[in-house]
Amino acid sequence: MYQLFIEGLQRLGRALMLPIAILPIAGLLLRLGDTDLLNIAIIHDAGQVIFANLALIFAIGIAVGFARDNNGTAGLAGAIGYLVMVSTLKVLDASINMGMLAGIISGLMAGALYNRFKDIKLPEYLAFFGGRRFVPIATGFTAVGLGVVFGLIWPPIQHGINSFGQLLLESGSIGAFVFGVFNRLLIITGLHHILNNMAWFIFGSFTDPTTGAVVTGDLARYFAGDPKGGQFMTGMFPMMIFGLPAACLAMYRNALPERRKVMGGIFLSMALTSFLTGVTEPIEFAFMFLAPLLYLLHALLTGMAMAITNALNIHLGFTFSGGAIDMALGWGKSTNGWLVLPVGLAYAVIYYVVFDFCIRRFNLKTPGREGVVVGEKAVLSENQRAGAYIQALGGAENLITIGACTTRLRLEMVDRNKASDSELKALGAMAVVRPGKGGSLQVVVGPLADSIADEIRQAMPTAGSAAVAAVVVVEEAPKAAPVETPEAQKWLNALGGSDNVLQLDCVAMTRIRLQLADGKALSECQLKDLGCQGLSALDGGVWHLLVGDKALSLSEALEALVNRSEVSAKV
Fold first, then answer.
1. Which residues are named in the active-site annotation (predicted)?
2. Buried b / exposed e along 118-152 (16+ C-beta atoms within 10 A)
3. SS3 assignment, position 215
4. Rg for the chain (alpha carbons), in Å?
């Protein structure tokens, strides 16, 4: 159960990246339209409207991110769910304001309903409303129910969240220090997005003097003009613009002489990425596992930066991360923003001295000092790169879902131990993370993560053949004969009957992915007698059956039987 919960949080963190990606353009428009710059109301309002509707945008983005195939229908369902739930809440109690959480919950609900009902088949006279069209309908009705439930239970929950947020805000430098430390430590698991979104979009409230709307969260409050906004953002600038680039210099200076030329280009690229955009994971994963002591010190230094900037009453916010570009965009609304520069310069010295001393004193195997070449990648075309990644991940048949956040590929796999860390690092990966005990795998590849994920999805075989000639050539599997109903019924009985099958899909043309209500009702002996070549149990009641080239026809026959049973039960 714990593992399932953690995997759910990781999926939420990945889904949050889609709506967050639009914030930089919103901040740019808002800032350019301000009176102290271009003073153009149209541009200012164009940015303002995005911030004013963040909850709706999050509902749409999270729903699409949670949908297994990222279909836009889930986004439509998320919007409907949010609008219906908020309207229901206002009827019950006009004082209830769920803010960003309403968008997040609506998105999660819509994504889950999409995955459950996207293939539903209704009776012929209702066939038009079947499949994906059914999802927004189901979401609307479900949102009414959720609205009623939250209308009854939300006031004390809202009071608790407000109290905790207020406590964190009033704790000043101590709260900022704790946030900064855990913000870095949670990067290892990918759960830092959850912490960030609580601080940046939920905690604290402020009434926008321009629109009169109540905004929540450190980020939204800062850009609405709250003088206290930025408490959980300002300290990122000294670390990202000054500290980590200085750490790159220290690691370069301590690299082996024969490796410096190669590592110099890599460290320069990492340092510029952190300096300009605030994307730090390429640097952090370069030493996180090779020198854990350094990473712990880095987390503590980040917390100290948050505490110091708060103590000096520096308030400077960002829309994406703490890089130089965001610093320029948010500068006009800052309080004592110029103090970031001397603090940052001091941090550059501190980071360089700390990294240089620790590397020399403890002989830490940072990049360039170890025997294994880290981050030196071959030059490949997009098609070759996708194929190489598929091969390094254990082949197409080993991949269940392929996703990405800002800097990582987030994968669900049949057997994650088949992934080759050395091959992935030879392709340019900074690190390979195996969170928990399930089939989750995270590959840190830097800002190109989403592009690489798209390339892999496009290169995945659609008919049982490895479609990437640059890696391996396999003959196309022969088309299997349709599975007759009597045979499919035997398979269904071995799976515990139609009531036990919650969801099924054909994966990589050789396997069937099932979600069962009760895994104990499955009969392994009967399945093997029917020709099942292998079984694999995953968390959350998910099973994989290896059945060979008849997987597609068998899954279609099973799905028809399950749907027929559901329709009969309704009639």
1. 405
2. bebbbeeeeeeebebbbbbebbbebbeebbeebbe
3. strand
4. 26
State the DSSP string of 506-527: EETTTEEEEEES-GGG--HHHH
**Residue indicated by tokens 């027929």:** 564
Average pLDDT over residues 76-82: 96
pLDDT at 469 over 50: no
Q: How far is CA 12 from CA 4, 70, 190, 436, in A?
A: 12, 14, 10, 16
The pLDDT assigned to 463 comes to 33
* Type and span of the H or E element at 505: strand 501-507
- Catalogue the active-site residues: 405
Answer yes or no: do 104 and 181 share one domain.
no
User: What's residue 375's pLDDT?
Assistant: 45
β-strand partners of 442: 410, 433
Q: Are residues 363 and 401 in the same domain?
A: no
DSSP code string of 44-100: HHHHHHHHHTHHHHHHHHHHHHHSTT--HHHHHHHHHHHHHHHHHHHHH-TT---TH
480 inside domain: no
- Minimal CA–CA distance to 506: which of 478, 535, 475, 548? 548
**248 and 316 belong to one structural domain:** yes
Q: Is the pLDDT of residue 571 over 70?
A: no
Question: What distance in Å separates the CA atoms of residue 397 and residue 507, rounded to the nearest whole number?
Answer: 7
Q: How many whole angstroms separate alpha carbon 483 and alpha carbon 493?
A: 15
| CB proximity list for 31: less than 8 A, separation 6 or greater | 37, 47, 329, 330, 332, 333
Q: CB within 8 A of 47, min separation 6: which ones?
A: 25, 26, 27, 28, 29, 30, 31, 32, 33
The residue behind tokens 């038009």 is 128
Instruction: Give the domain extent around 446.
Output: 382-459
Burial of residue 25 (CB within 10 Å: 0-12, 13-18, 19+) is: middle
Q: How many domains does the chain have?
A: 4
CATH of the domain at 549: 3.30.1360.60
Of 346, 372, 398, which residue sits at a domain end? 372
Q: Where are the alpha helices (DSSP H) in 419-520?
A: 421-426, 449-459, 485-494
For the chain, the maximum distance between any two Cα atoms, rounded to a whole number of angstroms, is 77
Token pair recorded at residue 383 = 């098609």
**Helices and strands per DSSP (H, E), number in the chain:** 23, 10
For residues 265 and 409, membership in a common domain is answered with no
Residue 330, both tokens: 């948010």
Helices 72-92 & 54-66, crossing angle to 10 degrees?
140
With CA atoms as reference, report the closest residue to 321 among 187, 417, 478. 187
Min mean pLDDT across 248-257, 269-278, 368-377 is at: 368-377
Is residue 477 one of the residues assigned to a domain? no
DSSP type of residue 240:
I
Give the contacts of 514 (CB within 8 A, at least 6 positions apart): 495, 501, 503, 504, 542, 543, 544, 545
pTM reported for the whole predicted model:
0.66
CB-based contact 43:25 (threshold 8 Å): no
Cα distance between residue 120 and residue 353, in whole Å: 61
- Percent above pLDDT 70 for the chain: 90
Tokens representing 186 are 């949670």
Residue 515 bridge partners (DSSP): 503, 542
